[in-house]
Amino acid sequence: MTDSSAARGYDLVLQGGRVLDERNDVDAVMDIAVKDGKIAALGTGLGAGAKKIENVAGAIVTPGLIDIHTHVYHKATSLSVDPGFISRRSATTTLVDAGSAGAGNYDGFRDYVMAHSPYRILAFLNVSFPGIFGFDKGVSIGEATLREMLPVDRCVAKIEANRDRIVGVKVRIGGPVTGAFGLGALELALEAANAVNLPLMTHIGTAPPSYADVVSMLRPGDILTHCFRPDPNSAVGADGKVLKAVRVARERGVLFDIAHGMGAFGYDTAERALADGFKPDLISSDVHVIAIEGPGYDLLHTMNKLLNCGLTLPEVIGMSTSRPALAIRRPDLGHLGVGAPADITVLRQFDSNFVFEDVVGTKRQGSTLLQPVSVYLGGRPMEVARRPFEEPFLLGCNHDH
Ligand SMILES: [Zn+2]
């Protein structure tokens, strides 16, 4: 995997880190070289002749983190947060917005936010014409209560004109979001997703409709987001086991996404599902104006939470890099193979006594935290911000090579 040092002239070599790349089945200490914004080589002794070398011994080198459920139509929708702020803090290179915009206001998202951000911002387009328009502290107005709010033809037309950035359709189902319309909104969203042949991301809230009714309608490749929401209407039945309809949906190819947010991660659900052998497919934050202040915070904190629930480090990284990339049908992203865009996140793992909290106030003492070291986006070094809410709990680095 190496070539002669004179000829290669790498722009950057990350030296001696533990490289974790699920797609390419890599988990090994090695160097990784970047040239012209792309991954150029992986191997040993790549540093000679490189323009820049970063010694990352003892650190973890992963594909740039992908948060598949965010809200970053900043300043134009009340629920959204600054994509730059959240990317710097969470060591993320790709943000996928989950339906903040609908067909009626997507152009502003594209022209005023996406076009001005150095980060890769992609979107699920809300089947609701105005997107999520009434969400803030103390404000919650459903965007999918009326058939008239969900014009499928307008959603389809907007996606056809913006396939470079729109990766699927979003709908929120449940409780006040859909009201009496319920599964009718899901039917319309599926109609749109079928018309454009893209995945549907479906939010599950309180019943009606039931969790089982919602997952039963999803197609292979569709994403059920907020999969470990707490009771009532969780993925776990009264017997403590994962619902049959959930298992059937997974066998069919439906993907299950964490999307922590302010209401959608309960230890009671997560621990029972994991004990029953049901792991999530995807980890995401559902970061928005309320969740950003905890207990969800952001993608990296949600990854830390799942790591402390017993998922392995390679699993947690795969669920936040390779698997979301494949879920949005962007196989160019989320891996470190030669020729891939040089989106790279470097993390360090610390011992920690951080006390995690879920959305209903249940607490769990953790033992470890991942923290950002550096981030490269298409080979460019990006700023990394402090995580003051986690810092007091770092006890020491537990990965010494
Ligand atoms: Zn959301």
How would you portray this structure in words?
This protein is α/β, with parallel strands linked by helices. The protein has 2 domains: 119 residues, Urease, subunit C, domain 1, CATH 2.30.40.10; 263 residues, TIM Barrel (Alpha-Beta Barrel), CATH 3.20.20.140. Helices cover 23% and strands 28% of the residues. Strands 1, 2, 3, 4, 5, 15, 18, 19 and 20 form a 9-stranded mixed beta sheet that branches. The protein has a 7-stranded parallel beta sheet with strand order 6-7-8-11-12-13-14. It has a two-stranded antiparallel ribbon with strand order 9-10. The chain is globular. It starts with a helix and ends with a strand. Bound molecules: zinc ion (ZN). The site of zinc ion has 5 residues, from loops. Zinc ion binds next to loops.
